[in-house]
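quick q for whoever's on today - can somebody do inverse folding on this one?? i tried earlier but teh output was garbage lol. tokens:
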């Protein structure tokens, strides 16, 4: 947790810090398991995410 993320949308970019991850049942998890799994993350309150792209900031 604590990664800096950015949600890029047609309405503009929205930066936020990843505070929690949840599995598809709403239980807290520490890592995203990988291919074939779905996770939930809290995000900025936006209504239209049709063309959104989630990005993670990388340290230089």
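ok took a stab at it. sequence:
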């Amino acid at each position: 947790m604590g990664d800096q993320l950015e949600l890029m949308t047609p309405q503009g970019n929205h930066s936020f810090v990843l505070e929690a991850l949840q599995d598809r049942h709403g239980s807290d998890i520490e890592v995203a398991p990988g291919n074939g799994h779905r996770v939930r993350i809290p995000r900025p309150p936006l209504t239209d995410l049709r063309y959104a792209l989630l990005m993670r900031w990388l340290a230089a």
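fwiw The chain has no helices and six strands. also The CA atoms of residues 26 and 40 lie 8 Å apart. so keep that in mind when u check it
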